[in-house]
Design a protein that fits this description.
Strand 2 and strand 3 form a beta hairpin. The protein is of the alpha+beta class. The protein starts with a helix and ends with a helix.
């Protein structure tokens, strides 16, 4: 592949992923209404704008895919893609149709029928799979550095900690100042064996789930780590969350060392996964 062609392909893939992320944001009102997260939600103007721009960006994604296949000379792919998806993308109602594709643990990978079908059709290509970049690695490193300062954040903000959600709430407020796609819990639902389970902080633009565990005494270590292993498995099986970062918050009553926690973690991972 020539350098110019390679640059052209890279440009098309980047443009596609840009619009894909925009669609995920813009379609929020559509799935809020569809899933009835807020039964009283009835903002007609918001719904109209959401539908219009979701459809507009899906149409742009469609055109990008067509140019991509044409550029690579994949004429059979191009003809089939136009035949199957052309009629759908030209019809706004059909293009923005909401459905759901459940994962093993109850969450969904996507909500838009068209995106679900495109993921199947485009599975041999790299459109939906972000490649790790130096910028992303740096962002993750900075995020980890921030999370390592959780204790300092709690002290500076004078946050009273009675339960894990007290930590989650202040951290969400902090990261929300920097990141544009921060959620307190997943849009879908997780089925979980622990009754009070809820994802703590989800940063959509990095594909990262953050899980806090408040450990009050040494006896809590085993329970919290077992919970964490189950939680992390569910996060990372959702393709929207490519990484799970665990933060253990220890009270002054905990005497177990970081080395001992790491050893217990490795032991439990080995027993539960057989690795």
């Amino acid at each position: 592949m020539s350098h110019n062609l390679e640059e052209r392909i890279k440009f098309l893939e980047n443009q596609f992923n840009f619009y894909y992320k925009e669609v995920r944001t813009l379609s929020g009102s559509l799935y809020t209404k569809y899933y009835e997260f807020n039964p009283e939600y009835d903002d007609i103007d918001d719904m109209t704008m959401s539908a219009y721009w979701t459809h507009e960006y899906l149409y742009r994604m469609y055109n990008i895919i067509c140019v991509y296949f044409e550029t690579l000379g994949l004429n059979d792919y191009l003809r089939e893609f136009i035949s199957v998806f052309g009629p759908i993308v030209k019809d706004e109602a059909a293009a923005i149709k909401i459905t759901s594709q459940p994962l093993t643990y109850g969450d969904t990978t996507e909500d838009l029928f068209l995106i679900i079908e495109w993921k199947k059709f485009l599975s041999p290509f790299s459109f939906f799979w972000d490649k790790p970049t130096e910028n992303r690695k740096l962002e993750i490193k900075k995020l980890i550095g921030l999370l390592e300062c959780t204790n300092e954040i709690i002290k500076i903000t004078k946050t009273q900690i009675r339960k894990e959600e007290d930590i989650n709430a202040i951290i969400r407020q902090i990261v929300d100042l920097y990141y544009t796609d921060v959620k307190p819990f997943s849009i879908g639902y997780f089925q979980h064996k622990f009754s009070d389970y809820r994802p703590d902080v989800l940063i959509g633009e990095l594909g990262i789930a953050i899980e806090y565990k408040l450990i009050r005494t040494d006896k809590d270590i085993s329970t919290k780590i077992d919970e964490l292993i189950v939680d992390a498995k569910q996060y990372t099986e959702n393709i929207l969350n490519k990484k799970c970062i665990a933060v253990l918050c220890l009270t002054t009553k905990v005497t177990i060392t970081k080395k001992q926690i790491n050893e217990y973690w490795k032991k439990r991972i080995s027993l539960l996964t057989g690795v």
